[in-house]
Design goal:
mainly alpha, 3-stranded antiparallel sheet, 23 helices
């Protein structure tokens, strides 16, 4: 089914609005006019399937007809059928890609709301629907399928601006704080996508000010908490783009401390996903893994395909943390183990846990598209390689007190010796490895190991090897001591020779003075 066909048979909120009329004999004439308007409206809706221009003309006639009825009765300028017809006209011109006509009718709709007789519930429902339609134009598949003559972002800006003016809590023609807040959130999201940082910061200030005032005057904490989460989501996106981890961490901690709100799972997932990336940037891999798992569950609850992206990030954080727990063992992640988007990451995890570095690097090369196409994953591939190489290196050097760097490099899939040196230096500096590198001979001289898993569970044979290795180490120490003593003795001899030479030179002059 095409997009156009979906539009024809999509859910229409007009059909769900309840119009409960109670007819009496005294109102027969008025009811006849009401029935005529209702019939004209639904006949116009039926024309949408055949001819859009004919349908538009029919909706215009409904508006004119109702204005005549209202004019004769001396009541308001617009009624409910004018409101519904104007909504349909906005939808028709939005569908055809005529932005100018669409905005003209949208402004008429806002005027109808301000001056007409429309219930608040119908207003909120209708405007929220319009805002969703407009925002979908520049998001995802809808953006790709929008008419080529339409500039979705420019149109959305015009719609949001007009809506904010009408529903402003203080200065609007029809003040409505909830609609103003929701519109401002969508406006802020659009500004974020357009990278309009200065304007976005102003929107955030307005939202915080309004939300603070409302929470002070209202006794309900649920709505206030939900609004706080929506504001935090927008702030976190901004700070994440700016790489301002200090402010990002501050806002993230505030968001995670909110209680009582019922935010949309997608809003919560967005906060958790960006929080996970924040932890990754600080190399807090364990915290990142936990946060990505929560984001994955939230996206899954919302039915959002972004759950697969977060599952990849969870796997990445788990490997960087060198965790022995397989993330696919969890009940929530297990169903996605065999998903085509995830199988490469599943294979990576298995190779990682088995310390199969050759297989690990082969999987990375063979699945460059599925793994490396994600910028965030690509940024951490070097860290990932370094982590598994470090794991394999520690396993390789464990039985030895002396091993060549070239032998280690061979075990690490023939990486350059200089990379082996860098890995060893890192282990020595963080206190994991007690040893030194003989760069001249290209050898690692290992004294003892600290903090290596499995160091305390050696077998009897390993103990015997350990005794021999200790004896070798003691012998090396003895040799070093003798070399040091020889150096000291030689230095003393040099000092003695210098003193003797000095005395021989001073001898004649001293004797002359005595004589």
């Amino acid at each position: 089914m095409s997009d156009d066909e979906e539009y024809e048979y999509e859910y229409d909120d007009d059909d769900m609005e309840e119009d409960n009329f109670e007819y009496t004999d005294e109102e027969e004439e008025a009811n006849d006019a009401e029935v005529a308007l209702e019939n004209a409206y639904y006949n116009s809706k039926g024309l949408r399937e055949n001819d859009l221009s004919e349908a538009a003309e029919a909706f215009e006639q409904v508006i004119i007809q109702e204005q005549e009825e209202l004019g004769s009765s001396g009541s308001r300028k617009y009624g409910q059928w004018s409101y519904k017809s104007m909504k349909q006209l906005v939808k028709l011109h939005l569908r055809s890609g005529n932005a100018d006509e669409m905005m003209r009718h949208y402004n008429r709709l806002l005027e109808c709301i301000s001056e007409g007789d429309v219930s608040p519930n119908a207003v909120e429902k209708g405007i929220n629907g319009m805002l969703e339609r407009v925002s979908s134009l520049y998001q995802g598949a809808s953006a790709r399928n929008s008419p080529s003559t339409l500039d979705p972002q420019k149109l959305a800006l015009a719609v949001y601006d007009a809506t904010l003016k009408v529903f402003h809590p203080s200065t609007g023609a029809c003040p409505n704080e909830r609609l103003w807040f929701k519109t401002n959130l969508k406006y802020g999201q659009l500004l974020y996508e357009m990278n309009e940082t200065a304007k976005l910061q102003q929107v955030l200030r307005d939202l915080r000010t309004t939300q603070t005032a409302e929470s002070t005057s209202s006794s309900s904490t649920t709505g206030s908490s939900t609004q706080s989460m929506e504001i935090y989501a927008l702030q976190i996106q901004l700070y994440s783009r700016q790489k301002d981890n200090k402010k990002l961490r501050e806002v993230f901690n505030k968001a995670m401390a909110v209680r009582g709100g019922i935010p949309h799972p997608r809003t919560l997932a967005l906060i958790q996903e960006l929080g996970g990336k924040m932890h990754m940037a600080s190399k807090e891999y364990e915290a990142a893994g936990k946060t990505f798992f929560q984001a994955f569950k939230s996206y899954d609850e919302a039915g959002d395909p972004s759950r697969l992206r977060c599952l990849k990030y969870l796997v990445l954080a788990s490997m960087l943390h060198a965790s022995s727990i397989n993330p696919f063992d969890s009940q929530e992640a297990r169903p996605y183990r065999d998903d085509p988007e995830i199988t490469a990451m599943t294979d990576l995890v298995q190779a990682f846990h088995n310390n199969e570095i050759k297989k690990f690097e082969r999987i990375l090369r063979q699945n460059t598209g599925r793994i490396m196409e994600d910028e965030f994953v690509r940024e951490h591939v070097e860290d990932l390689l370094r982590t598994i190489r470090t794991q394999v290196l520690r396993r390789v050097i464990r039985p030895y007190t002396r091993i060549s760097l070239s032998a280690i490099a061979k075990e690490l899939n023939d990486i350059p010796v200089v990379d082996v040196e860098n890995l060893l230096v890192s282990l020595i500096l963080d206190g994991t490895l007690d040893g030194q590198i003989d760069q001249v001979s290209g050898v690692l001289l290992k004294k003892a190991e600290r903090g290596i898993a499995g160091a305390n569970d050696a077998s009897n044979a390993d103990k015997n090897k350990g005794v021999a290795s200790q004896a070798q180490t003691d012998a090396d120490l003895v040799v070093q001591k003798y070399e040091a003593m020889n150096q000291i003795a030689k230095a003393l001899e040099d000092i003695g020779a210098s003193v003797t030479s000095a005395r021989m030179k001073e001898g004649p002059s001293m004797r002359g003075m005595v004589h």
